[in-house]
Amino acid sequence: MYYKGWYHLFYQYNPKGAVWGNIVWAHSVSRDLINWVALKPAIEPSIKADKYGCWSGSATMMADGTPVIMYTGVNRPDVNYQVQNVALPRNRSDPLLREWVKPGHNPVIVPEGGINATQFRDPTTAWRGADGHWRLLVGSLAGQSRGVAYVYRSKDFRRWTRASQPLHSAPTGMWECPDFYPVTADGRREGVDTSAVVDDDVSAAARVKYVLKNSLDLRRYDYYTVGTYDRKAERYVPDNPTGDDHHLRYDYGNFYASKTFYDPAKRRRILWGWANESDTAADDVAKGWAGIQAIPRKVWLDPSGKQLLQWPIEEVERLRGKKPVTLKDRVVKPGEHVEVTGIQTAQADVEVSFEVASLEAAERLDPAMAYDAQRLCSARGADARGGVGPFGLWVLASAGLEEKTAVFFRVFRAARGGGGGGKPVVLMCTDPTKSSRNPNLYQPTFAGFVDTDITNGKISLRSLIDRSVVESFGAGGRACILSRVYPSLAIGKNAHVYVFNNGKAEIKVSQLTAWEMKKPLMNGA
């Protein structure tokens, strides 16, 4: 959240080690979302309602500007019995909000009426209706397999009443970390405050859509739908009736338990996501930390209304070195690769625009894989010769290419009878299977289809490279993939970046610009 000139990030943290357990709410602050100072934990187990864990939750700005936190507490030693608690700042005049107090009336929401008490957590940011009531969601599991977002109403954040029916549900398994927020539907990139659209403002309501995001406990990824919020019925309806089956995702890689907030300073909505480690627990203990936050992303609704677009916040560009290196109008022939030289690339920001001379060589998409980008990428990785592609970047690559992480596109002709108007299908992949010579790593390929029109042969890619992280944005943020990699050779000055083309069709790098990135400030206080 943003408060009195400071951004505040609260995150799940184990102060006793680099493994899961002893969870508290750590607290860091920043002026610019890039350089951070860690404060002492904001919320730790201290009352009966959170004695055995302070789990996730959200912050809300009250009408008078006071921030309030709602969070999940575990209150039993033998079972993860989950209740919802409230915390308030001890001194609201302190812009750093260094101390939080828990009122004696906690817990304020308990699992009643047949709710599964061990699957009942992660209250959202609340929003205020024209009736003066605040509303929030709590994620849960109904029966054996139905993810549920329960609605709770309150006037004072003390007494909460559950609505007669959920906001939405789907047979996806447990819904963790729900997020629900408005986005502009008129093509503008401005964010919308969660409480900005009131019930009786019909014109305002017509200019927004709503996004419901849930984190799937079973599958360990986040998915979202875009739809309509009926405030009177307290119901949400996705625009796409199959949206709960064929999942849109913020990120097709290692990206989970995400959360957005509205930034009033720049009138934008910002997305945070967590990426866990892909090495061993012993490695984590040795290095003394585990888990990272992705670079914050600005999110807005695509003019088509079908999906969100995402882009790294503009502040990250302040870490760019003064002199970038460039390639321009460079043709890369089939089987060829070209090194990007002149900067160190273990920490780099690379933006590239590709042009494909002809799509005639594109392979026909197998109908069996028309909805399974992951399977398609695994079957036809970066080294498998294709028609149009694979082409893209090898990052964190060693000089002899023994190690490399591939971020690439591959273009297919539409499957017969596959819909989509017969336009070419674009697959985006990250393939880390050759990222390290260390054998004790989890190295899955990640992939998603990019909803873009490539009939003109043009597509763009941006990759943020940060030693063990490769975070990539395809076609202006229409598809995003974050991958964790742990090279053993391509480290520091020994890391290289190449443009490669393993397709039959020539590609042209119409423009590539790469910056060496400086380290941000991360201090404890």
TrEMBL record:
UniProt keyword annotation of Secreted present: yes
Principal subcellular localisation of the protein: secreted
InterPro entries: ConA-like_dom_sf, Fructan_Metab_Enzymes, Glyco_hydro_32, Glyco_hydro_32_C, Glyco_hydro_32_N, Glyco_hydro_beta-prop_sf
Pfam entry (one): Glyco_hydro_32C
One MF term in the entry's GO annotations: beta-fructofuranosidase activity
Intracellular or extracellular location(s): Secreted, Cell wall
Top-level enzyme category: hydrolase
UniProt keyword Transmembrane present: no
Annotated EC: 3.2.1.26
Domain Glycosyl hydrolase family 32 N-terminal per the UniProt entry, residue ranges: 1-312
SMART domains listed in its UniProt record: Glyco_32 (SM00640)
Stretches assigned to the Glycosyl hydrolase family 32 C-terminal domain: 315-516
Domain of life per record: Eukaryota
Keywords: Cell wall, Glycoprotein, Glycosidase, Hydrolase, Secreted, Signal
SUPFAM superfamilies: Arabinanase/levansucrase/invertase, Concanavalin A-like lectins/glucanases
Residues spanning the signal sequence: none
BP terms from Gene Ontology: carbohydrate metabolic process
Reaction(s) the record says it catalyses: Hydrolysis of terminal non-reducing beta-D-fructofuranoside residues in beta-D-fructofuranosides
Family: Belongs to the glycosyl hydrolase 32 family.
Name listed for the protein in its UniProt record: beta-fructofuranosidase
